[in-house]
Amino acid sequence: MKKLEVCELRIAQELASFAFEMQWKLDLNSEKECDQMNPKKEGRSWKKCKADWLLFRLREETLELEKAIACGTKEEIKREAADVGNFAMFIFDTAKQNRRVK
Ligand SMILES: [Mg+2]
User: Is residue 10 part of a domain?
Assistant: First the structure.
């Protein structure tokens, strides 16, 4: 995956900060087994997943975020928000690259 330096991006500092947290979570989860990332075990990338499954996972992540907001720490809230952001990004990327939406 190509990574840009933040100075190359003309985006708000808040968005850059969120994107860095999202990347941190992606890197943290990079060793997960295929069946955790992809129900059909077709490879370990969101790029192998259909948008409807990614949406299912996004909903699960929003529940985790809800729990973190209710009784978690600030760090837990940030990390769960990044998970939500990542799954939304996966769906965005799936549609943008014309991969399987359904
Ligand atoms: Mg999570």
Answer: no
Span from the CA of 7 to the centroid of ligand 1 (angstroms): 28
pLDDT one-digit tens code per residue, 5-38: 666 778 888 999 999 999 999 888 876 644 545 5
Domain membership flag for residue 14: no
CA of 93 to the centre of ligand 1 (A): 19
Structural domains of the chain, count: 1
11 Cα to the center of ligand 1, angstroms = 25
Question: What single string gives the DSSP state of each residue in 29-93?
Answer: TTT--HHHH-TT-S-SSGGGS-HHHHHHHHHHHHHHHHHHHHH--HHHHHHHHHHHHHHHHHHHH
| Residue 83 forms part of a structural domain | yes
